[in-house]
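Hi, here's the filled form for the chain we discussed.

Project: internal
Contact: R.S.
Residues: 323
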Amino acid sequence: ESLGSTIILFGWGAILSIASEVLNRNESIRKFSLPFLIASLPAFGLSLITSFNYQPWLVMLTALGIAVILAALHIIRTRWWLWTMALFNFAIAYFAFFQLEFMKNFDIFLGYQSLLLSIIFLTPDLFSKKGWKDNLIWLLPTRIFGAIFTIYTFVNLLAEAQVTYNLICCAVYAILFALLHIQHTRWWLWTVSLSNFIVAYFAFLNLDFFKGLEIPLEFAWLGLSILFLSPDLFLKKDWKDNPHWRFPLRIYGGVFVAITMFLSIYNSTTQQTTYINTAIIFVTYTIFFAAYAFAYKNTGLGYISTASLPIAIAYALAHFKTD
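And the returned structure, exactly as it came back:
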């Protein structure tokens, strides 16, 4: 019964939607084109609803068929709302595909499914030759769906809380948003990329191999801060060059330096780490910020280097005094 209802409703919707385009080509009856198209939408919607009472393959084929018809109508005459509904139905067909019996046997993590779908929706932006605000009728719906399923991926990551999932998904997003930033030069895309890289970085350090090494947390933050600030030493020696690339790195790097210094001092005070570890961290910052200050002739960076040195010496002396 559900199968027959779905087929009839889908067929009726297809006839009405195609007829609307035929009517539009004749000027004398063009006024009936939009009513026919609008009338097809409830038929499509009911066909999709009834398909859920049958089998996943019917849901997939129905949603995919609706998506193809609406996308074709959009290609013929661009209408953003048709394209949006086509993408919505494509998403339904996509998830229905993973509910097929042979796909369920693979037991693919839901976060990976939404990860791939968000990549599919955001990929067109990688090949857009025009500016960020061009082709919005085509690209804005894909961006919105891409953002929705990116958020949905992180919801799944939080629900599962597995290191491997976090590492793979965030590493992929870090690369994807970096490529989007290269294409469109938007600082917030680069910031999203860096944020994902940070999560992937700590997920990587939480793999069983690295957990066995028992790397102190302050050293993990030290490495991250140096990693984010180091590009400044190799780019053009003008502080204001490439702001879309360099400012997010500097902001993150500065925050990580503050976190590293605080953690090293706090952990050594509470005896969660040794004094010599704190000394090593401040010696590293002394050398790094001295090179940084020299590269840019920046006295402010020199003050950080100068202030770090006596702290490093004090903790080194405290270590040997304790021994």
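Let me know if anything looks off before we file it.
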